[in-house]
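User: Last request for today: this protein with uridine-diphosphate-N-acetylglucosamine, please.
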Amino acid sequence: MTDPHLAVIVLAAGEGTRMRSRRAKVLHPIAGLPMVAHVIATARHLDPAHIEVVVRHQRDAVVGAVEEYADEAIIVDQDDVPGTGRAVELAVAALPADFDGDVVVVSGDVPLLDAVTLGALVEQHRAASASATILSAVLDDATGYGRIVRDDAGGVAAIVEHKDADEAVLAITEINSGSYVFRVSALREHLPRVGTANAQGEKYLTDVVAMLRAASDPVMAMPVTENWRVAGVNDRAQLAEQAARLNAMIVRGHQLNGVTILDPSTTWIDLTVSIGQDTEILPNTRLAGATTIERDAVIGPDTTLVDCEVGEGAVIKRTDATLAVVKAFAEVGPFAYLRPGTELEGGGKIGTFVETKNAHIGRGSKVPHLSYIGDTEVGEGSNVGAGTITANYDGVNKHRTTVGSHVRTGSHNVFVAPVTIGDGAYTGAGTVVRKDVPAGSLAMNVAPQRNLEGWVAANRPGTAAADAAAAAAAGEAAPTAE
Ligand code: UD1
Ligand code: CA
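Assistant: Here's the final one, the structure of the complex with uridine-diphosphate-N-acetylglucosamine:
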């Protein structure tokens, strides 16, 4: 149920220079979703009456992503005044004037912070009737972070930024994680009075803590138990670390749900993927996007599936597939490349070194070896011979190939589209099918074979081939190869 007295502000205006990227930091994905989408999902779990996202750097791109994942979010544009204090000040001003309650502040670059931790923070804040409650962490190396300065009684006195800290403060190991809960009245009262006279010339949100303290308003700090949950992503190395942590959790979740995953460290599964019971995922497999896999399938090794649908009991080995549908008990690979629009019906097969695109392959039909099948419809129970190419492109336009049901096509065929091969038809090996083949006929257009006897002896004298031919003529075994 929506909590009318709760708002969440997601800070996402910063530049993220250390990513060295043309993409906004919060748009870098982990587990298939931009970091800011993870933070928004966590915010939503708190059921706040308002979610606000503060933007500035790469504004339009960030807004686009926010709207995709949370169209209810209020976008707040930060102005020229830099700093987290200014960001929150503008976000608070954008809340309804009669909003009364608590404001959770989180950063868009802390993707693993979970709703359980934040929920506990809000609960403790409310139980203590605090004006502010800081999510803190105790770190071996606190370099770069704002330090939590406590008084002799253990109460929170201030947060001092690393760049503004003296020796004594730098020795403090309890840091500000950058997530907090504030009573909105405390922010309304104090943020306008926060200045920029500090090492970075920014309006610090953290200055509010000392101001509350001076006004004798209670401020609490709650240390997290798992520091990685509050770790921010500032560069690509940290991006990879957090991605690996989240992936490990996702893999484990599927394992506990009844999916066999042989090698968690080389299996990458997006948050958006679903996998049925007793499916087996073999090493070096990546399952991405809107991929869904039913029960009892076997996927991998060395397989990437992006936005694919896989039916019960299907087997997909060493395959790269995007926007493909593989129905129940069908088989794919090893070494198959399924491009968008591939649909393999139940019990069908797309085999070794086969590429498909916009191809619907009917129930029980097989394309087993060395083929390119594009813009094609294959009926049921047909077999497309080894080494078949659909010549679907005339240099300007793409054309369709239609293969009926219970067709048997020979090896090394070219189907020059547009062309139709009727139900129950056959084609000979090496046929270039340029004309429609009527149902039940055999098509062939390869010239009759001529054997020129004695040609090797006459034209290639002294070669190993000539020697072997001579031995064969004498009824002897061929000479052994060198
Ligand atoms: C901030 C805290 C610091 C804390 C650290 C935790 C302040 C002054 N300091 O420092 O105590 O230990 O986070 O990581 O808050 N942002 C805006 N607008 C701005 C500036 C930043 O929206 O003008 C956003 C950033 O995009 C980011 C978040 O605020 O998501 C934190 O900003 P950042 O510059 O990383 O703050 P730190 O200096 O790390
Ligand atoms: Ca930071």
